[in-house]
């Protein structure tokens, strides 16, 4: 689905950018141009970015914490 019509950016491209390390709307703007013209897409782009980060969080946790941490008894 197109999110930013001015730049032709889709939700998939925003999710891919999040997976590649895009952290903020500012990053999206500089990497993809999202919100750099009329800015009508900003609200939706931010929501998709947050959603993508939430979905990535469990997999990213294992990158930050060593495997041994997760297998330790409580
Ligand atoms: S729709 Fe994204 S800048 Fe216009």
How would you explain this protein's 3D organization?
The structure is a single chain. By secondary structure, the chain is mainly alpha-helical. It has one domain: BFD-like [2Fe-2S]-binding domain (Arc Repressor Mutant, subunit A, Orthogonal Bundle). The chain has 4 helices and 2 strands; from the N terminus they run E-E-H-H-H-H. The chain has helices at residues 11-19, 25-32, 42-64, 67-70, and strands spanning 2-4, 9-10. It has a two-stranded antiparallel ribbon with strand order 1-2. Strand 1 and strand 2 (9-10) form a beta hairpin. Helix 1 (11-19) packs parallel to helix 3 (42-64). The protein is elongated, with a radius of gyration of 15 Å. It starts with a strand and ends with a helix. The relative contact order is 0.17. The model has no long low-confidence stretch (mean pLDDT 87).
Short description:
The protein has 4 helices and 2 strands. The chain is mostly helical and 74 residues long.
CATH class wording:
Mainly Alpha
Kindly give the count of domains.
1
In whole angstroms, how far apart are the ends? 43 Å
The best one-word shape is elongated
Number of strands: 2
Strand order of the largest sheet: 1-2
Assigned CATH architecture: Orthogonal Bundle
> What would the CATH topology be?
Arc Repressor Mutant, subunit A
- Roughly how many Å is the radius of gyration? 15 Å
How many H/I helices? Answer: 4
Helix content: 55-70%
